[in-house]
Amino acid sequence: MPERAAPPERPLPVFPEPDTEPFWTATADHRLTYQVCAHCGQTVFHPRRHCTGCTRGELEWRDSAGRGTVYTFTVIRQHGQPFFRARVPYVVGMIDLDEGFRMLAEIGADPDAVHVNQRVAVGWEDHAGLSVPVFRPDLAE
Amino acid sequence: MMASPAAAIAGVHEFPRRTAGGLSPLQIKAECAARALEDAGLAWRDVDAVYDASEAGRMQGLTIAEYFGISPRVIDTTAVGGSSYEFQAAHASRDIAAGKANVALLTYGSTAHSQARAIGTGGRAAADPQPADNMERPYGLTLVGNYAMVARRHMAEYGTTPEQLAEIAVTTRRHAMRNPQAVAGLADIGFRDVREITVDDVLGSRLIADPLHLLECCIVSDGGGAVVIVSSAVAAGIPKRPAWILGTGEAVGYPAGGADLTTTAAARSGREAFGQAGVRPDEIDVAMIYDSFTITVLAILEDLGFAKKGEGGPFAAGGCLAFDRPGGPALNTDGGGLSSNHPGMRGIFLLIEATRQLRGESTAQVPGACLAVAHGNGGLLATRHAAGTIVLGRE
Asked: Which residues fall within 8 angstroms of residue A136, CB to CB, at 6 or more apart?
């Protein structure tokens, strides 16, 4: 029998990349993190070194509770990359987290069961050294 | 009305085919440049400013003058995706107004179709680590999906329907069927049944990224073009009617801080361009709006002020965007990126068709067209995009 090829793997962030590396390091502990400026209070996401609200910024990392609302979403039905091609159809959306930042993520749910303004909660897909956030309908609410 | 404009489009050329036939992007650029210069009654030696988006090679500011054989005093390498050419036209008009240039040359060439580049649904190649890529790559969003998220939010917020979006594709195909180059091109890139389409055709085509269907996505062609922009002194001696640059606007958009995704950077670039031109949207005869997808057009029609935010659906579905219907601007009269020409960065064709309309040379001519707007959208509408607006006038 021919050896079965390993299934394609999810594309992951590429390092070294100093702005986003702390975010991904925290995901290994299933922590979803964002930044707040100690000087002006600005919430910052995507992660970066400088504050976008003030020039004296000092950004602090905080943990999100991982709960939010679907701002918008799409169902991907065609993709050229092998991992995603094997995964279609799947849902990608923008989540407004309760702490006041918006992030892109996969929403792990039946495409027909996802809607705008739906409550979702973060879950995790584990990989070597990091975990990928995958949001799911928030059944606790 | 503003002071008399400093610069005008004097020459245009669109590569006539949608398959390159073995030509390279650079060869397409040079062929289009030569034809556009002839169209303007000018020659290579007259060019003193060159604008290049480096789409045919890296750092082309260093090499394109040598390739063409020109000695420009101004070299501008603005590259903001499909809107690069509206930004470059804005910069050219300013460079000319400042006395730094008299004859500006913008060129574009691409063999996206021949290379079978899956622009909308391709897997992005892993490149150097970039912050934004690191926050997006793992989730498998496609370019089509990126725009689809704007459509989804627009539907949820304003009740916009799939049928209303589909009308944009229907109108654009109708215009394409009047354009022999578009008709031949659709067949050349593999369309089996080249004809006018209906709303049912659009909604019956397969979903690529909900809620966007196949026929709501631009085609992938080869192609290219060139635009020659000149000073008023040069314009006085050209063979064809100049298309004056009356106003320009530039902006970028990104969804920081929970921004409203249904409002694009066109709201800002459009206000700037219409303000400078002293023109109102309801005075515009022809709207050349970057139609990467139906939603791109719908959102930008609202943002430019042709319809109120949220009312673009009924506006588009009312039929007024057809070249022969009153009540609104004629939309993408060449057949657009949806049905005529989209080799990856369509912005230059918006300027070319707007100029044809003001000269009376379009295949879907608006009788006596006096004012046109060309609006380029580059990048990814939901995550980061660039908006360039150019208002053009016949007088």
From this structure: A107, A108, A109, A120, A121, A123
For B126, name the nearest residue in chain A, comparing CA atoms only: A14
Considering only the C-alpha atoms of chain A, give the largest distance between any 2 of them, rounded to a whole number of Å: 64
Over residues B215-252, the pLDDT tens digits come to 999 999 999 999 999 999 999 999 999 999 999 999 99
The tokens describing B72, both together, are 């420009």
Q: Which of B138, B142, B149 sits opposite A72 (nearest CB)?
A: B149
| Amino acid making up residue A101 | F
Q: Which residues contact A113 (CB under 8 A, 6 or more apart)?
A: A137
All residues of chain A having their beta carbon less than 8 Å from the beta carbon of residue B258 are 71, 96, 100-102
Q: Is the pLDDT of residue B187 over 70?
A: yes
Burial zone of B99 (CB within 10 Å; 0-12 exposed, 13-18 middle, 19+ buried): exposed
> In sequence order, what E strands does B170-264 have?
207-209, 212-213, 223-231, 243-253
Enumerate domains of chain B plus CATH numbers: 7-115+220-393 (3.40.47.10)
Farthest CA pair distance, chain B: 56
Domain coordinates of chain A in residue numbers?
Answer: 21-137
Residue B152 — φ and ψ, nearest 5°? Answer: -60, -45
Backbone angles phi, psi at B347, to 5 degrees: -50, -35
A21-137 has which CATH code? 2.40.50.840
